[in-house]
Amino acid sequence: FEHREAAVLGAVVDEDHLRRTPERAHDRVLIVEQDSEHRQYMAQLLSETGFNVKVADSVERAMLLWQTWCPHLIWLDWQPLSSQEFNFVQYIRSMETTQIKRENGSSLSTSKVLDLGMPSMPALGASNETVIIAMTADSFEDPCQATLSAGCNNCISKPTQEAAVFEMMARYLGVRYLYDNPPRRHSSSSQLALSTQEIEQQMSQMTDAWLTTFLQAAINLDEETLAHHIEGIAEDFSSLASELKSRLKQLQLDRLIDLAQRAFALKVAINL
Fold first, then answer.
1. How far apart are CA 175 and CA 17, in angstroms?
2. CA gyration radius for the chain?
3. For the stretch 71-105, what's the b/e string if a residue is b when 16 or more beta carbons lie within 10 angstroms of its beta carbon?
4. Per-residue pLDDT, 185
């Protein structure tokens, strides 16, 4: 299993102020949102956390900023009845493909790009794909399908939840978060908190099937499956279940991934 470096360290934003760790000080985030109130909310949320943020109230403005500012990640307000957002994402992906082929020494016809009537692309590195996450208020059964088909990396529902926003930032940019004031652990007097090593040791006692399903659910952001699996071990491993529940409640999904991977490694080592 691939080791995940990024970790959301306690994303409980309603109790303690989060900030990024310094090593990702230059991440540029573009917010494309027509609704002024939500645009201001997203900008304030990410700016206060330490991201370098710019906003656009239209796709046209967003295109100009993509050309001149080269954001690492775009939060895109997705309007299902409009084709502008779809064309915007398709254009970015087309230009990124053009850049890669040029850097590989391949010739490429630019007729498709010229037909879009868009300006030329910014200078990006060969491996630099702009991360695009759609925000949709669409009430249909699968609102994310259209965004993913267009080329978005992921999709979240509006109104956006702070913890979900931070989780996406960690997942796609590899950022870590710190508390300005460390979070308080709420524990009962009858139950001592487990150390990370103890959590891994107890998780290694789970079956391969349990660990595999748990790990896949964490990777897929499937909170319902995670909660169900944790509840299933609560009777026999109450302390472990309490620790995992706490991390799930705080949406520390990367921490859950890391714990499951380490438990697998420990399980293999024990069986050698």
1. 16
2. 21
3. bbbbbbbbeeeeeebbebbbbbbbbbebbbeeeee
4. 41
Judge whether 39 and 57 are in contact, CB under 8 Å.
yes
Indicate if the alpha-carbon torsion angle 152, 155, 159, 160 is positive or negative.
negative
133 closest CA partner among 90, 66, 51, 73: 73
pLDDT of residue 270: 64
How far apart CA 193 and CA 218 sit, in angstroms, is 22
**Over 90: is that where the pLDDT of 88 sits?**
yes
The two tokens of residue 94 are: 């087309």
Q: Going by C-beta distance under 8 Å and a sequence separation of 6 or more, which residues neighbour residue 244?
A: 199, 226, 230, 256, 259
CB 44 within 8 A of CB 12: no
Tokens coding 78: 């997705």
Q: How far is CA 15 from CA 11, 41, 159, 162, 247, in A?
A: 9, 18, 20, 12, 15
Helix (H, G, I), strand (E, B) or coil at 93: helix
Rounded CA separation 61/58 (Å): 5
Q: How many H helices and E strands in the chain? A: 11, 7
Q: What crossing angle do the helices spanning 208-219 and 253-271 adopt, rounded to 10°? A: 150
CA distance 244 to 130: 33
Per-residue DSSP letters for 182-194? PPPP---TTSPPP
Q: Is the pTM of this model over 0.90?
A: no
